[in-house]
Amino acid sequence: MLDQSGIARFAERHLMPDTIHVSRDAGEDVLDPATGALVPGAAVTVYADKAGLYAHQERIRTKGAGLNGAWVEEVLAGYRLLLPLSAPELQVEDSVLVVEARDDQAVGRTYRVTAQGEVSSFPVLRTVWLEERDRKPVAV
User: Fold this and answer.
1) Out of the domains of life, which is the source (predicted)?
2) Whole-number pLDDT of residue 126
3) Rounded to an integer, what distance in angstroms lies between the CA atom of residue 12 and that of residue 126?
């Protein structure tokens, strides 16, 4: 019989070398007393710990600049985020910031969660699908 917890520990130790910060919009606007305007509420931290970020080419079809508005195929870079089983469930539209990574060029990039995490009958890690947003400077 396979030792599920042993495989999970191995996955965390060898497949999750990066540190990320996941935040979620508060959802409700708050009143700015200085201006009297409603402004977005502060984002809530969902998860801030280890993870593994892996590129995955995702093919999508989109209506583009083809002749007479024809459908053209566009390739978008998609990413897989590996998380430990102890991580909370991420939601679509959560924002992921790479804080530390083996690949220096990954630090400061932000991603958007595009689908709920995958589930399994033999869970050893969580897989969440992402799409890149932009790159933010990170204080070193």
Assistant:
1) Bacteria
2) 94
3) 10
